[in-house]
Amino acid sequence: MADLIVQKVLNNNVLIGEHSSYGEVVLIGKGIGFNRKQGDMIDQSDAEKTFVLKNEKEQENYLKLLPFIENDLLETIITAIHHIKERTGTALNEHIHVGLTDHLMFAIKRLSTGLEMKNPFLHETKALYPMEYSTAKEVVTLIEKKTGIHLPDDEIGFIALHIHSAIMNKELSDVNRHSQLITSLVELIEEQLEIIIDKESMDYLRLVRHLRFAIERINAGETVEEQGNINSFLKSEYPICYNLSWKLIKVMQKYLQKPVYDAEAIYLTMHLQRLQKKKI
Prior knowledge:
By secondary structure, the protein is α+β, with helices and mostly antiparallel strands. It has helices at residues 56-65, 71-88, 95-112, 122-128, 130-147, 153-168, 172-193, 202-220, 230-237, 239-256, 263-277; strands spanning 3-11, 14-19, 23-28, 41-43, 49-52. A five-stranded antiparallel sheet has the order 4-1-2-3-5, with helices on one face. Helix 2 (71-88) runs antiparallel to helix 5 and helix 8 (202-220) packs antiparallel against helix 11 (263-277). It is elongated and about 80 Å long. Keywords: Repeat. Residues 68-173, 174-280 form the PRD domain. GO terms for molecular function: RNA binding. It comes from Niallia endozanthoxylica.
């Protein structure tokens, strides 16, 4: 393994090293920083975990966080991010090191004072991103096993959004905006059809996934194939659902600031009609 020069010892188990190819790298390992000082040579194989932050801003933000986080928790979060990378088999946007570390630090601090943050997008997140959600669940289990800190289900949802953001290389704010839009659309459906959708049901799962794919298509400017004369049939047979589908489309247009193709109304009407049929 490559030799590195010690740049800064953060504590006995974490230090910053200078790599000939990658620049600054973070090294984690039991006792790796003990008795070491700036300018010392160190073998990369001495570290249990190594990661590189190539983006200077991310590197700067990460280094600002480190003095405020206990070493055991830092090691656990780094282990968790390695697990996320292996579990998803994807190159993660390196912002996850800053974003997830920052989020978990403050989540744990809040919980220690008895403050629990409710996640308004929990059901939507679980339905939209099942792989990310199950990975986040594993992260929460890992944190509890390593630190004894139990994080509630709301936090699983927040962690899942961080994972999705890192996988898709999207800003977390964009991921949150789409979750917020879907929540608003589901609330409008429940209000207009006078129903409460079971958030654990397959119907809900199908609806939310359809809305997610519709949003992605609209953002990408993709067209949906027209289905012959079915448009006029749905309009006459299911006027409530058809009109509601157009209300939903208007909300999406306004929120996304992009045009929505007419064919989206056909597929939305079919989903809505299935929900209305089950109304008691």
